[in-house]
Write a structure and sequence with these properties.
Layout: E1 26-27, E2 31-39, E3 43-50, E4 55-62, H1 72-80, E5 89-95, E6 98-104, E7 109-110, H2 121-140, E8 153-155, E9 161-163, H3 183-186, H4 198-215, H5 225-234, H6 240-243, H7 249-258, H8 270-284, E10 291-296, H9 300-313, E11 317-322, H10 325-335, E12 339-343, H11 352-361, E13 369-373, H12 378-386, E14 389-392, H13 398-411
Parallel strand pairs: 10-11, 10-12, 12-13, 13-14
Antiparallel strand pairs: 1-2, 2-3, 3-4, 4-6, 5-6, 7-8, 8-9
Helix pairs in contact: 2-4, 2-8, 4-7, 7-9, 9-13, 10-11
């Protein structure tokens, strides 16, 4: 009997040095093995030739080690997502007592390897929208993506992008560090595997990959892993507008929203992110009907944030800002806006109630939708209601509420307008 140290694991076990399948070996009388593609915790992936349909396929063979999970869940995960980001599953079977899955073969380069020359704005938007659509489809199927980065996305020659977790292990599902960088995971607030945290984690990943595609490096990337983790946990992320001044400011604002350290403060869904991206892209393309929006806020930073939100909500939105009541009154007459957001704490010549009453008193057949942002005093609440002024609270969901208001207004039939009024003097 030989020494235990000389024991060799049989073929098909994780620790075996002997190939599980050899080149030219045929599985199920159909799939001729060509070469090994990848090894993972759950099995080994081969490139094979489908002799019946004359096409390349990926064949994943499960490890034979005791306690290994079935490949069924991984196959179902890929099959559930109806999007080019996920490989098509052709079938499953059993080869000499070992489970296998057959999928389409995808060939290309990792996204991170093609970012030596960061893309122009239009190309960046196309790729970012593709990834946002992929995450949207995955979430609709109840699937979390996890790590979304240049190390986990494959880009083929036709521009198709495939997510690692939906590639049947042909593309890495995790980057070199095997780390989810969402702040709540880095801080230990939640587990990366927590289903209730998955959507917010993926949204943060979209923000990170947007920065990586624009600059060639993910946020906080560096040689010191602790510094990288600390950056994701607590340091404000770099702004896209600073890295790429040639990009639309609304895109920078959207990415900044995705990278919020507070998971509940990020956009409410990947679908909503996709809708905002479509509005940004449409705005850069063909013109649509005009939806005039006026933001009245004496806080310059918040006024600009609301301006950006309204523009991202719908491509038809033409947004103006007024910092005080006199300027707002001028723009109410000049522009005849369809939708007016008024800060509840407005100070100056006119407060919020006085401005709303002024707007309602204008002699025009064009009645604007007035929306108070924040809480009205108990005394004024009934007055605002009587003047048909809607109220939305100034809380962590304000961004989503603004998006909804603008989109709802954009769906209404266009109002008849008189020409803009020019006021001089």
């Amino acid at each position: 009997m030989g020494r235990s140290g000389s024991f060799q694991a049989p073929p098909g076990f994780r620790d075996s040095t002997i190939r599980a399948l050899n080149q030219g070996e045929v599985v199920a009388s159909t799939y001729a093995i060509r070469e090994e593609v990848a090894r993972t915790d759950t099995g080994i992936v081969f490139e094979a030739h489908d002799m019946m349909l004359d096409r390349l396929v990926a064949l994943k063979l499960a490890w034979r080690d005791p306690g290994m999970p079935s490949l069924l869940l991984e196959a179902r995960r890929c099959a559930a997502v109806r999007d080019p980001c996920s490989v098509a599953i052709h079938g499953m079977g059993n080869h000499q007592g070992t489970e296998y899955v057959v999928a389409e073969r995808v060939i290309g380069r990792l996204l991170g390897d093609v970012l030596a020359r960061p893309p122009a704005c239009a190309e960046h938007l196309t790729k970012f929208r593709t990834l946002a659509a992929a995450v949207t489809r995955a979430h609709e199927a109840g699937i979390a993506v996890g790590d979304i980065s240049g190390a986990t996305v494959l880009l083929d020659d036709a521009g198709r992008m495939v997510l690692g977790r939906l590639s049947l292990s042909q593309v890495p599902a995790f980057g070199p560090l095997g780390q989810i960088f969402a702040p709540e995971v880095v801080r230990g607030d939640v587990e990366a595997s927590d289903p209730s945290a998955a959507e917010a984690i993926d949204l943060y990943g979209l923000g990170c990959v947007a920065i990586e595609m624009a600059s060639g490096e993910p946020p906080f990337f560096g040689s010191d892993r602790e510094d990288e983790l600390r950056g994701h946990a607590s340091v404000p992320a770099p702004r896209l507008a600073d890295l790429r001044p040639d990009f639309p400011i609304e895109l920078s604002d959207l990415v900044e929203w995705l990278l919020d350290k507070r998971p509940t403060a990020r956009p409410r869904s990947a679908r909503d992110v996709l809708a905002q991206l479509d509005a940004i892209i449409d705005r850069l393309g063909t013109a649509t009907r005009s939806l005039r929006v006026l933001v009245v806020d004496d806080d310059a930073a918040r006024g600009r944030w609301l301006w950006s939100l309204a523009r991202r909500a719908h491509p038809a939105a033409q947004v103006e800002i007024a910092s005080e009541g006199t300027d707002a009154a001028h723009k109410l007459i000049r522009d005849l806006p369809d939708l007016v957001f008024v800060d509840a704490t407005l100070r100056g010549v006119m407060n919020a109630y006085e401005l709303c009453m002024y707007a309602r008193g204008l002699e025009t057949d064009h009645r604007a939708q007035l929306v108070l942002v924040g809480e009205a005093t108990e005394r004024d609440r009934g007055l605002f209601t009587a003047a048909a002024v809607a109220c939305i609270p100034d809380n962590i969901q304000l961004g989503s509420a603004i998006l909804d208001r603008v989109r709802s207004a954009a769906q209404e039939p266009p109002r008849r307008r008189r020409p803009r009024t020019t006021i001089s003097g």
